[in-house]
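Practice record 12: protein with 2-acetamido-2-deoxy-beta-D-glucopyranose.
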Amino acid sequence: MKTIIFIVFIAFSLASQVDAKTFTRCGLVQALRSQGFDEAKMRDWVCLVENESGRRTDIVGKPNKNGSRDYGLFQINDKYWCNNTTKPGKGCNITCSQLLTDDITVASKCAKKIYKRHHFMAWYGWRNHCQNKPLPDISNC
Ligand SMILES: *[C@@H]1O[C@H](CO)[C@@H](O)[C@H](O)[C@H]1NC(C)=O
Ligand SMILES: *[C@@H]1O[C@H](CO)[C@@H](O)[C@H](O)[C@H]1NC(C)=O
Ligand SMILES: *[C@@H]1O[C@H](CO)[C@@H](O)[C@H](O)[C@H]1NC(C)=O
Ligand SMILES: *[C@@H]1O[C@H](CO)[C@@H](O)[C@H](O)[C@H]1NC(C)=O
Ligand SMILES: CC(=O)N[C@H]1CO[C@H](CO)[C@@H](O)[C@@H]1O
């Protein structure tokens, strides 16, 4: 029994490793461009993503004090923006697991919606590491 549980565990961790994607900086820039992010704000978006998720698509944050969690490349919060279950809902009308896929279409749409309402101030990663700070160099991307 223990062995079976162990094998299942290994299989799941391998599967999730295959699924997980870490963008390079320029890979991220290309992906954001193809999602139609504003070129004038590109370095802010790259800085935000680098500080929020380390450019990983499948990151789920540790629970915040109020029990909410942050999901994916943009670390989007389940208190307001995505439903924690299998039923889409909340601000972006999505399930939180839709924010963890390698295809960043859903996550990008949701991030833009958050930006429209709160600008970059919605993200602590941006406020603490990017606002009034030197932004990442993307001149070779
Ligand atoms: C929950 O915690 C997160 C992170 O600390 C914060 O962004 C969010 O505003 C909090 N929500 C409420 C309703 O307190
Ligand atoms: C999301 O789910 C986790 C685990 O089931 C739970 O601990 C957390 O409180 C939930 N978040 C919200 C905002 O309901
Ligand atoms: C989230 O999912 C649960 C379970 O399916 C559902 O009862 C709830 O209405 C959903 N919340 C929102 C805001 O859509
Ligand atoms: C939310 O998305 C579902 C499909 O995932 C759709 O059927 C529903 O109409 C949407 N609700 C709103 C309020 O946009
Ligand atoms: C913690 C973290 O990832 N910090 C990074 C925030 O963004 C700047 C600019 O890209 C990086 O230099 C930091 O390492």
